[in-house]
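Recall the central idea of this unit: under ordinary conditions, the amino acid sequence of a chain determines the structure it adopts. In this exercise we apply that idea directly, starting from the sequence alone.
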Amino acid sequence: MRKHIAPTAVLWLVIGAAYFFIPLLATFLFSLRKASTGHCCSLAAYGTIVHNPEFWTTLRLSFQLSLEVIAISLILFVPTVYWVHLKLPRLRPVLAFFALIPFVVPPIVLVVGLLDFYKGTPQWYYGSPYGFLATAYVILAFPYMFFSLDAGFRAIDVHTLTEASQSLGASWPTTMFRVILPNIRVAALGGSFLALAIVMGEFTMASLAAFHTFPTFIQYINETQAYPAAAVSLMSFGITWAAMLALLFVGRGSRSRVQVAGAH
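Accordingly, the structure predicted from this sequence is:
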């Protein structure tokens, strides 16, 4: 039996799609204009961006920062959230409260406080994006990583999995890497892709800390070149949405989550 879609649902879907895609289409058409005449159509703006060495340098820096932030976040938060769910469930609301702080404190206030707090630390840390900026981004990504992991742990029976693993003689590292992680793989990857999108688009912290990342490069182009600015904005949007699409495909694999049966 075929399901009928209500006309009002189709109408609102069309309105939502138009609200989303019309600005993108207008930006794309603007990016195709020639700098000499202002008329359509030319890919010169995209060529200007692609052949700019700063584009690749800043893009590589932001991507490397995102990988560092993902690695640090997983190393810190996976064991912490696992232990809280296993042994200290009363601390979960406390962690959830701390995870909301980056939402409440504006990034401009947060980075100023961090710059003052870490003043006097070694130059290799304070003056390096892989040190100071990565630390700031881990804090910024904390809510997304925590709530993603928390949802993953709440979807599995942590106590049963741990007891079953240890009853078979597994150590704590074996339990973590061979039992727990496969079961929260989707949640961990989901938080990782969200962290990637955050790092690739964060401007305030990088700008105030005087680090030249991909978002600061976009801002510089926006201030100096009109048509390439539209082109690089669309390219940045595409990178972010690629991360979101990856999150969507990862979510489809949640049905294949592995469980370890308890001893009979």
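The radius of gyration is 23 Å.
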